[in-house]
Amino acid sequence: VIPYGRQSISEEDIEGVVAVLRSDFITQGPAIERFETAVAEYCGVEHAVAVCNGTAALHAACLALGLEPGKKLWTSPITFVASANAGRYCGADIDFVDIDPATYNMSVEALREKLRAEGPPDVLVPVHFAGASCDMAEIAELSEKHGFAVLEDASHAIGASYQDEPVGSCRYSNAATFSFHPVKIITTGEGGMAVTNDAELANRCRMLRTHGITRDPDRMQAEPEGPWYYEQQQLGYNFRMTDIQAALGASQMQRIDEFVARRNELAERYKALLAGLPVSWQHVHTDTRSAYHLFVIELAEETPPRAEVFAALRESGVGANVHYIPVHLQPYYRALGFEPGDFPNAEAYYERAITLPLYPAMADEDLETVVSALREALGA
Length: 380
Ligand SMILES: Cc1ncc(COP(=O)(O)O)c(C=O)c1O
Known about the structure:
- By secondary structure, the chain is α/β, with parallel strands linked by helices.
- It is 38% helix and 14% strand.
- The chain is built from 13 helices and 15 strands.
- It has a seven-stranded mixed β-sheet with strand order 1-9-8-5-4-2-3, with helices on both faces. A three-stranded antiparallel β-sheet has the order 7-6-13, with no helix packed on it.
- A hairpin with a 2-residue loop joins strand 6 and strand 7.
- The radius of gyration is 21 Å and the shape is globular.
- Bound molecules: pyridoxal-5'-phosphate (PLP).
- Pyridoxal-5'-phosphate binds next to helix 3 and helix 4.
């Protein structure tokens, strides 16, 4: 089976991990800072806080942005549930902004209308779907005008760029988060990171990562009683990443450009081979370079039903997938009052979407196998 995504692990990555296993620190050691620095430098952002997964990065960033009961988070319905759940963990109310049918990202037009009708949320979470940046300049303009915080869910998009700057530079946002799950652009097994240019926000994330504890004498409320002294000043969590994971992440960062280049090459190859078939794919704006975490196609009206095409692909050994079931249609969110029909573009997209395999180690022949299987499934 050709999987829809998978990690690329080199001998160097393995050596990096083994070196940590042989060292004094397998957690809370120097590899964390090494990884954080590598990501911060790559993204051109001042602060980076490594955590145990992308969901924890979103959760910590939401709390650090002051999200709490009575406050509101808006995100895209076409995302993994984590983008919305992070707000729920803080007790906030969730709502969604429908997608643009061409880019599959949050529609700026829909956002503008919703702001006009309802006033602002407290935190907006645009999701750079499949690795292509949202229109951040427009979103930043609206955030300034209406006064809401912007947290980029860049789980798919480390290595992408927008207006010639790396995604994660936070030029147009308060913070951004990454996920390092094995199917993502770089991996740490499980892992995530919050990045920001706001020192206070970074410090809050850092404290939330370790139970709300500070060991910095300058930040303490009481006189330190000795070198052992630490203060828990708020209720935080254990969101720590291990040094074993961070060593893998730091090593993977050395190949991030190679990974993204190969993903782009494969995506272009897909587009060439799919030309003429009754399918379309994500429109990526000219000022955006996608990291191509995913390659998603949308079936045209006249094709066999998606379930049939999907089953035929799986039968041919193609590990197709679907990203995503609109979050508002999940039973948990339905119970909060959302209904079919609430976000029609997201729902129409979902009905016809299929994710095709894409990962750096995928061979050109694998890609041809996928397209042949698709052609057959479509009866084309
Ligand atoms: C858009 C999006 N946000 C958040 C997450 C959560 O990341 P993690 O699985 O590392 O917790 C994911 C990962 O699947 C994702 O795709």
